[in-house]
Automatic annotation (TrEMBL):
Acetylation as UniProt keyword: no
Example of a GO cellular component annotation carried by this entry: mitochondrial intermembrane space
Role noted for this protein: Accessory subunit of the mitochondrial membrane respiratory chain NADH dehydrogenase (Complex I), that is believed not to be involved in catalysis. Complex I functions in the transfer of electrons from NADH to the respiratory chain. The immediate electron acceptor for the enzyme is believed to be ubiquinone.
Membrane topology label: Peripheral membrane protein
Descriptive protein name: NADH dehydrogenase [ubiquinone] 1 beta subcomplex subunit 7
Localization per record: Mitochondrion inner membrane; Mitochondrion intermembrane space
Protein origin, superkingdom: Eukaryota
Swiss-Prot/TrEMBL keywords: Disulfide bond, Electron transport, Membrane, Mitochondrion, Mitochondrion inner membrane, Respiratory chain, Transport
InterPro entries per record: NDUB7
Family of the protein in this entry: Belongs to the complex I NDUFB7 subunit family.
PANTHER family xrefs: NADH DEHYDROGENASE [UBIQUINONE] 1 BETA SUBCOMPLEX SUBUNIT 7 (PTHR20900:SF0), NADH:UBIQUINONE OXIDOREDUCTASE B18-LIKE SUBUNIT (PTHR20900)
């Protein structure tokens, strides 16, 4: 699974790459080269497959982490424990 910071680009890298705010997550470091490859290859679907699969795997792992945290929060709520802050 993706670890915190391993795939996170710096704020300057994200601004320079003009990433939308919704895409500035823990997988942003993988999205920057994917977008560059897409632009260079005119968005041909068979190009940039390795970059795309790496980015999609990272996003899927983040999704699984969020679902695991939600499940744990639901179990804690059912048992009467307070829900931990996510900040």
């Amino acid at each position: 699974m993706a670890t915190t910071g391993k795939y996170l680009a710096t704020q300057e890298e994200m601004v320079e790459a003009r990433l939308p705010l919704g895409s500035r997550d823990l997988c942003s470091k993988l999205l920057i080269p994917l977008n560059q490859c897409r632009q260079e290859s005119f968005y041909l679907p068979w190009k940039c497959e390795d970059e795309r699969h790496g980015y999609e795997k990272c996003e899927y792992d983040l999704f699984l982490q969020r679902m695991k945290k939600m499940q744990e929060a639901r179990q804690g709520k059912a048992q009467g424990a307070p829900i931990p802050a996510t900040h």
